[in-house]
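Handout, tutorial session.
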Amino acid sequence: MDKLHQLTLSSQELETYHQQGYVRLGKVASQQEIEALCQRIDNIMLGQIRYDNMLMQLCPSAGKSDLSKKTREFKEVSLKYRKIQ
């Protein structure tokens, strides 16, 4: 993901957005870009990449209710995070 894609909406797409509040964009990223995003979020969940003040919430199904509260800290190495902001 070395470069951002310049998105241009047609007048019809823009009208649809204004009427419905959304517009279907179709394919906006390549398979390689999607795989890179998946690897990045896995690295965040596994603690290999950390950001200060990132909100993280483990899924209660991880079996650790004390860690399932949303807080601004890395909780543990797990792929069972349900929310990351």
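The second record follows below. Compare its token runs with those of the first.
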Amino acid sequence: MSQDGFTGDNGFGVDDSRLDAASYAALSRGRGGDEIREELKRLAEDKGEDVVEFLAQLALTSDPKLSLAAVEALGRIRDKAAADALSLLAGRTESKEIRKRARAMLFQLHSWGIEPSRVEEEAPPQEEKMAGARPEFLDGRVTFLDHSGHRIISALVKEIAGLQHIWFVSEDGVGIEDASVERTSKRGYDRWTEDLSSYRLPIIPATVDHVDFFIRESSPKDEAGKGSLPARVARAIAAWNSIVAGRKPKYSRHPIYYEFDEQEVGHDRGALAEAEELISLDETRDWVALVPNARDYNRRAYSVIHTVIQVAPGVRGEMIARIVGEAAEEAFGGDRRYTLARRLEDLAYFLLQGGRQGEARQAFAVALALRRGDSLIRIPFVESLVLHAIGLKRVSEPDEVGDEEDREEDIPLIINPFDPRYRERGP
């Protein structure tokens, strides 16, 4: 077995011969992408690290279907050599599609505990560092925190040598985990943004000051931390610092605090109550995933609702409220409430940028309630989020379940939406 090919039956009727990447590419002309993908997948699973170099060479061919199939095959090899090859493809290949697929495969290997080696990057040529030529900020984007607490920070910059794309991936409470500085074009940058939108991550348009805030809050605050940064991250931070050199930071807190009066919104009980409806927005529909063990809580609530034991309405309501409170505490107790507050600050700023000031104010009111330590279950939005997550719905119409006499105003009347009686009436 060679590093840049393989010996034996290669699928073309050529047995016991050495086939390199160029020959394989030539013989693959006219074949379907699915057929090539399956063949390279089997090769990767059978030969493992022995075919890493071969697959990496195939990924650099001019045939898109062959290149993509090779990248996907590399993602099947659970070895650091495959991760190193994908890392190089993700950072240095001209094809946007190949870089995107390579990053996806790197993430797959990461989920298996396989990381690429940290290789020091070459310093940029001196001729690119033109004295007195400060890069010009053209565009910025910041994503919401995703379900795992990660966000992407991106900037398009104009330099003497052309356009540069600087991007960072940070984790809330941890810091910057990855970053890169890449040559790009306006069209390429727009396609990158479109690709990002396809993952259903709301994207916030960001000024240079907004981007600077999110990068600064994610960067190490001491020299020891800066010294331990991977080379590509340190290079991206240095590139960004060259853009904002001499510029006084505008924001010391999340930008939403500079758009609303914190004291006024913090005392707006109406906005806090109305924020319960934010759970129906497209931007928050996936937030139910933030509540762990939802099915277990649903089973517990269901057993309380449908118990054959006679229970006073007030007692039943207290039992349900206790279950909902436990679910809220598991999801958002301790420091987790501040991560939820961050998501709501992002949401408020995103809504405000879209001209939805009322909803932005409501989201900000919830963030403030979380930060000042209000009881989780007494924050309407949090209660609504937990109810949706564990499959419960508050009943407001009489005679939907039970008798009218069971409906005391101080009892949280909740039913299970999977109850046949509920399904007959619809949501």
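Points raised in discussion: The longest helix spans residues 313-332.
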